[in-house]
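W.,

You were right to be curious about this one. When I first looked at the sequence I had no strong expectations either way, so I just let the prediction run and decided to look at it fresh. Below is the sequence, 386 residues in total, followed by the output.
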Amino acid sequence: MSDFIHPHYLFILIFLTLGLFTALGNYIIVRRFDHYPPAEHFPRLSVLVPARNEEANIEACVSSLLAQDYPDYEVIVLDDHSTDRTPDILARLKRSHPRLRVLTGEPLPPGWMGKHWACHQLAQAADGDLLLFTDADTRHAPDSLRASVSALLAERADLLTAFPREEIVTWGEKLIVPFIGLGIFCFLPIGLIRRFRWSAVSVTIGQFMLFRRAAYEAIGGYEAVRDQCVDDVRLGQRIIEGGYAWTLLDGAEHVACRMYRGFFDAVDGFSKNLFSVFDYRILPYLATFFIVGLAFLEPPLALLSLWLGYPLTSFPPELAALSVFISLTLWLIAFRRFRFPAWLALFYPVITFLFILVALRSFVQALRGTATWKDRVLERVAPRWL
């Protein structure tokens, strides 16, 4: 057992233990929409949906938004030069729902990313005191607007963001998408981020961003992040840096989303912006995924190779087993809040390994300037070491 306190093994144990405490803290701190009392008044709300080639999603999304029990709101959808049936579906929905407004996107100006330009146009057309940006692949329970606005007002927040219930259907999705839940829930101390205004490690989820309009405009809105790949994260950081109140809640009981459809769609989706979450800083990015790989892959590899009779590492079996137990606990906590099947946690080494490969792909694409999304090439950004 002398190897038990070897710095290498001790580091892995400390890393996983800190993750466990973070996950338990977030499990207690991150509340659901319906944990708040109904608001006494409901401000005018504009729900804003950018849509580009969303024929598979747009009807379910818009129909769920038009069925809300919120007393005073509008739904505005912008068709961002779709080449599929999205415009036809929106035209049909508009004929049946006067509350729905459909905009046709203007040509993309230089220096803007496509979705950001669409959201900017939506915000300019809106007349609400509150602005909710949500994606075309989301679906909303009938009380989601009422519950989220009640939460925003109770928290006195200027930006309320929430993670939805991410639907994973194919095996490809199941082995890629769940890693995001782990990363958010187990390694971002939400309470400390709010208390000490740690904008650099905050996360904002673009599938659900509810702003007070005054705060959104004060930070410059989408125009201020027009060339930033991770618009949601940057908007949240600007809210915190501007002295406004940011909060992250659990929206999984009220909002559902199938982020990607299949393995390669998920790989492409995460590859396009994963490196940009780290602001294109090479050393923090590579160090993060090296440590994650070390902590989540070496202990199960040590146990498996020992069981097969060909030990690949000198990792003490007792400590490796403890590390695997903590890892499984971490994944189960995150999966419970994100509504992923608990049995998927058994595949956490595979999920981790595949996501590290996606991270490397994102890194290479950013360096080469070959990342694309929605048939548009993303502008190359020069990385820096720190």
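Here's what jumped out at me. Residues 31-164+205-261 form a domain with the Spore Coat Polysaccharide Biosynthesis Protein SpsA; Chain A fold (CATH 3.90.550.10). And, maybe more interesting for your project: The first strand starts at residue 45 and ends at 51.

Coffee later to discuss?

I.
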